[in-house]
Specification:
Length: about 750
């Protein structure tokens, strides 16, 4: 057992603080640091490697190795054990380091006698700045307390390095040939709009001046008080009338409040303070550990939770600092650039001056993306590297339709985007003109265009878009954004407001589609190896029938004297559907016996997402009143491609002959059985894909409200008989994609694909 276990990390941290405060050169302080760490940990070697340009780890200081190696020994990313710790951002703990396959011998260091090796990454803000190592001659593994002690020291060291406390951090960064040169970035379009404005860097991080605690008990009290103020501030945000939080954006902040009350997060913060850190430093350490751990899981649900905790951590830092709520001052036409952001942070910005948002990490269904769309702010996400390249005040152009972000663009690029913005405004005006016109082809065939929705904030889009109704209402969103299961009365009120908001237009309510990446924050869920094919949707409903009956009961009451349309998700076979329909029938009978209000008619449909069901369409249509093709899941199952995995999601095209043939087969089978079939999914809202779908025989499409105008213009410009004949011929081809052929056909015949 090493001395640090007896003395605790606090003594070591106090000694480090004294060294940092000394009026000495950076090198002199680094040399003292490694000497003190080595002595405290009874290590024969302690070394600090920092990252230089090109991801090279350079030996900056050492106690125990050859001093001549300082600033001469360099290891590439992934090279050697130091490179391994930097690459994985995790500790490397070995009892016989030279035998490890990643060991890289450097004779100038004279490290031959040392067998034991412990290297921990120097991490701050999710970025690896370097690696801190200790070594001993005796072969042994360092225990957990030793690893914990070295990680605490590395955390303090990372903060000092990042803040320029030892030297100018520009010495460690990749040098720029021209700092003001134009840069073009490509990301994912998440909220429509073209924004041309100036960069505002999202820098809410509070500078942590004091890292090491003088009185741990006082720090715990400060932490608890700040956490209480944080929760009160989030409650105040929900109560605020200034933010006008309604519908989806309000429910997102309701979910955010749940994270602020997370007891596990609070306990981790308290434990970090007990190691000798100040409350501020403890918040930094817990967040760095969360970033590294979640980044390696690849779990989109956890990643979204991380963004919320990042937001909360920054707010907690401000409360520890004694600051009030952040008041942001923005110039006109501001575009905020950030690595990541929580939904509440976005709401901190004045809406009248914010026109765009660019994020390095964000999912289409993330909370901040939902709020951005509600605010009509152009958003481009997953733009790698832009936060490091952007400077405050830089000119930037953001296209929320193509996913482009142009930093410091030349004049001709700006003119091109101004033209695009002008054309978009003209197109919006055109959409208004066609909004109330029927979606009828040139040869007189009517296509019903429905919209997808999930929360009350979507309802005004019915009138704005000219949709014929709501073809898919995702009921699970109401369950996912609350702290507890919605009460029956709340569900009834919610569904009634949806129905009344739709007026005389039909609404198709999809019953709870939980599981996969849609997890209830208050439910118990076991982690699955392949959640997309696991316990989800109708499978959960049949295993937990009370959940389905509870929801159906609310929908029946809310739909009194109207027609209720229910859609069951993820139906795999007819027997499953019949079991679910029997549960629905029991609720209808219960309402009758109790003489409760109920619909004049209840229609129950099956969502066709599982390929097996397409081979049983005649049978399912004897039980189901309609079928709706869920193209997102159906196509990912058909092609065996995870659509959330960027590495493989682009390997298939929805306009592949196989995809069109599958959809054609479904349409023909439904027609033979005399059943109604519709399609909801991303491809319904893309003009070229939608042209192919109606050519195959679909007459009902459901999509995002913003896509209805372009699809309607496409429909009004086609001769359906001509399109149908052409698409029918294409289904027999063996191309990887029919996109080019369909686009050429549309161009020849003047089909509108804007």
């Amino acid at each position: 057992m090493i001395a640090v276990a007896a003395a605790g990390p606090r003594i070591l941290l106090r000694r480090l603080r004294e060294i940092m405060a000394e009026p000495a050169s950076a090198q002199a302080r680094l040399d003292k640091l490694v000497k003190v760490i080595a002595a405290n940990m009874v290590a024969e070697v302690c070394s600090i490697y920092l990252r230089r340009a090109g991801n090279v780890y350079e030996l900056f200081a050492t106690e125990g190795l050859n001093r001549a190696a300082v600033h001469n020994t360099r290891l590439k990313q992934g090279e050697g054990l130091v490179g391994l710790a930097g690459e994985t951002a995790e500790p490397v703990n070995l009892s016989d380091a030279p035998t490890h396959p990643r060991f890289s011998y450097r004779p100038e260091t004279a490290e031959d006698p040392y067998r034991s090796f412990l290297g921990v990454p120097i991490v701050r803000g999710g970025q690896v700045y370097g690696v801190l190592t200790v070594q001993n001659r005796t072969p042994r593994l360092y225990d957990e307390e030793e690893v914990e002690a070295l990680q605490t020291v590395a955390m303090v060291l990372a903060e000092v390095v990042a803040q320029g406390g030892l030297f100018d951090t520009a010495e460690l960064d990749e040098p720029e040939l021209r700092v003001d040169r134009p840069r073009a970035f490509r990301g994912e379009p998440l909220s429509e709009g073209v924004a041309i404005g100036c960069v505002v860097l999202h820098e809410p991080r509070v500078r942590v001046e004091r890292l090491i605690a003088d009185d741990p008990h006082a720090e715990l009290a400060r932490l608890d008080k700040a956490l209480d103020r944080l929760r009160a501030a989030v409650d105040e945000m929900l109560a605020s009338t200034e933010l006008d939080l309604t519908g989806e954006s309000r429910e997102v902040i309701e979910a955010y409040r749940l994270f602020a009350q997370d007891q596990g997060w609070r306990q981790k913060l308290r434990d970090a303070v007990r190691t000798g850190l100040t409350a501020e430093a403890a918040v930094e350490r817990v967040q760095d550990e969360l970033r590294i751990r979640i980044a390696r899981t690849g779990d989109t649900v956890l990643r979204e939770r991380l963004h919320d905790f990042e937001d909360l951590a920054r707010r907690l830092q401000r409360h520890l600092d004694g600051g009030a709520a952040l008041q942001r001052q923005l110039p006109n036409d501001s575009v905020v650039v950030a690595r990541a952001m929580g939904p509440a942070e976005l709401l901190d910005y004045p809406r009248d001056r914010l026109i765009g948002l660019v994020l390095e990490e964000v999912a289409p269904t993330s909370h901040v993306a939902i709020v951005a769309r509600a605010m009509n702010v152009a958003l481009v996400g997953n733009v790698e590297g832009i936060a490091d390249n952007a400077r405050a005040g830089d000119l930037i152009v953001v296209d929320g339709e193509t996913g482009e972000a142009q930093l410091r663009p030349p004049a001709e690029v700006i003119r091109a985007f101004e033209t695009r913005r002008s054309l978009r405004e003209q197109r919006v005006a055109q959409m208004v003109e066609v909004r109330d016109l029927p979606a009828v082809t040139k040869d007189g065939v009517h296509i019903r265009l429905m919209m997808n929705a999930g929360l009350l904030i979507d309802l005004p889009h019915l009138k704005e878009s000219g949709a014929d109704g709501i073809g898919l209402f995702r009921t699970e969103l109401q369950f996912m954004v609350g702290e507890t299961m919605p009460r029956l009365a709340d569900q009834i009120d919610f569904y009634r407001r949806v129905i009344e908001g739709a007026g005389d237009k039909p609404v198709v309510f999809r019953t709870l589609d939980l599981g996969g990446d849609k997890i209830l924050p208050y439910g118990r869920w076991e982690r699955e190896e392949n959640p997309a094919l696991g316990w989800r949707a109708l499978r959960i409903a049949l295993d937990r029938p009370a959940l389905l009956r509870y929801q159906v009961r609310a929908l029946l009451t809310a739909s009194a004297a109207r027609t209720l349309r229910l859609l069951l998700p993820m139906v795999s076979d007819v027997a499953e559907f019949n079991l679910a329909r029997a549960l629905i029938d029991r609720e209808i009978e219960r309402a009758r016996v109790l003489q409760q209000p109920q619909p004049k008619r209840t229609l129950v449909g099956a969502m066709l997402e599982v390929p097996a069901l397409m081979f049983m369409l005649p049978q399912i249509l004897r039980s189901a009143d309609f079928v709706s093709i869920g193209s997102n899941d159906l196509l990912q199952f058909i092609f065996a491609v995870d659509r959330t995995n960027a590495r493989v999601s682009r390997r298939y095209d929805a306009l592949n002959p196989a995809a069109l043939t599958v959809i054609r087969q479904i349409i023909h089978s439904a027609a033979e059985a005399g059943g109604e079939v519709s399609l909801c999914g991303e491809i319904a809202g893309r003009p070229l894909e939608a042209m192919a779908l109606v050519g195959l025989g679909l007459r009902i499409l459901s999509m995002q409200p913003a896509n209805i105008g372009p699809i309607k213009m496409m429909i009004r410009s086609i001769d359906l008989r001509e399109v149908g004949e052409f698409v029918e011929r294409l289904c027999g081809r063996n191309d990887h994609s029919l996109r080019i052929r369909l686009a050429a056909f549309a161009a020849e015949r003047g089909v509108v694909l804007k």
